[in-house]
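Handout, page 2. Input:
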Amino acid sequence: MVGFLKTKCVFPILCLCVFFLPTLCFHAETFSFAGEVSFSFVVPQRKGEEVSRSLFDTERRVLAEIAPSPGEAVKENSSFILAANRTYRKDPLDGFKRYSGGWNISSIHYWASVGFTAAPLFAIAAAWFVIFGLTLFFAVCCYCCFPERRRGYPYSRTAYALSLFFLIVFTIAAIVGCVVLYNGQGEFHSSTTSTLNYVVGQANLTVSNLRNFSNYLAAAKTITVDQVFLPADDQKKIDTIQTKLNSTANDLEYQTKQNSDGIRKLLDSVRLELIIIAAVMLLLVFLGFLFSILGLQALVYILVIVGWLLVTGTVILCGVFLILNNATSDTCVAMDEWVMHPTAKTALDHILPCVDIATANESLYQSKKVTYQMVNVVNQVIMNISNQNFVPSLSLFYYNQSGPLMPTLCNPFTPDMMDRQCEAGEVDFDNATQVWQGYVCKVSSSGICSTVGRITPSIYTQMAAAVNVSYGLYHYGPFLVQLEDCSFVRDTFSTISKTKCPGLRKYSGWVYIGLVMVSAAVMVSLIFWVIYARERRHRKFSKLPYQIPQGRSPRKAP
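Output:
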């Protein structure tokens, strides 16, 4: 039963969140790109002379080495039990003591306590199956073994009228229950599908951002050695980072597709099963009522046997959806409390490997720092070389620069890593490469500008590569830090808790109520089918000439 509950009963939240969202979290080493890139710009020398000068060399250690460890960054966090009040239930595996471990999908005691909430319904299903089955068995035995008693019962107008009245009432109740069940399953399917689409969208957003950032890193490696070079160890580091990013993106994309396809099939199968149950029960009630009214006693008894089995299965399904409703509510409460207690140790820690806030902030700080330094690299080239009118004697920096001065690149951060607004005359990451194309000159075979311009195609390509990497760090760095410290997952959980959970709880409750109404109404209807058929038979026999069996005194019908 526990295995069934894990795979079937809690798919609205657990499958959608637990399957996908842990993959969105990064360990610190995956994000250790911020300080690993070292650029050196080469200014072309006349007449093929191979002289290079490093204007700026950005060397940083890996963030995993710089950032403080979780134990150093923060003190030991206190433990917090998720959904403690909701999950305080009896645990049949622990002597029916109250379970106090809170929401924890890895604990068999949690599942046992959730499953035990449906124990009364499972007991009702078992009692119904046994008692009504024995009743049918003895009724058939009496009918076959004592044929002379078939016409020996008096007819009661009151019993006949009441049986007909209750038959009509519970038939209507069963029809209403079928309508509630059908509408509930439709809304439930829409709600779970909406939640699934949201989580899949978040996963796809992550995949897209990871690949975009990987592409920005790859752009730096497309430059030839004589234009901008990276030390061999830094190139290996970029390769390692790209491998990790691409591997994570591919794994997440694969898991998203596999899990989403499986969950969609599960949702569709559950929807189809509920529709079939609603349709079959509605048909059963209609035919049972019709056959009872028409006096087709043999068909009524056949439907009673079929209904006996269907009601047993429907009551069991009521228990399953009660477990589903409780598990869904538990999960929604647990997600909401996890979002409100970001530093506490909870049962989600082993599922979502988040780093502490101090480590994540250090990662973001280093990302900003490298972005700031790389923008300075580009601006030093512009201000100290491109926008200077050197004389030909300064062959190291002279390549016949001329024309309007180039705008500098807007640095999004101040020296203390605070946000900075762009000033007039600066270009930002979005339009820098387009604007700078207007300042590129044509060069001769000796590498000197032969037309008006401030930069050669070689320097422009180097600057474009630096802008690409800077843009990647600036634009995607905060997002990757959100993955690292689980704030992205917390935002996702918060959205699900606020916008998706109310619908999931409401419509799973509708399905449960519909199943209860249908099973209860059909259960009672089966009894009144038999009672009404019996009273109708007695009424029919009371109108026929009655032959007194030998040795019996006559009885008058009322």
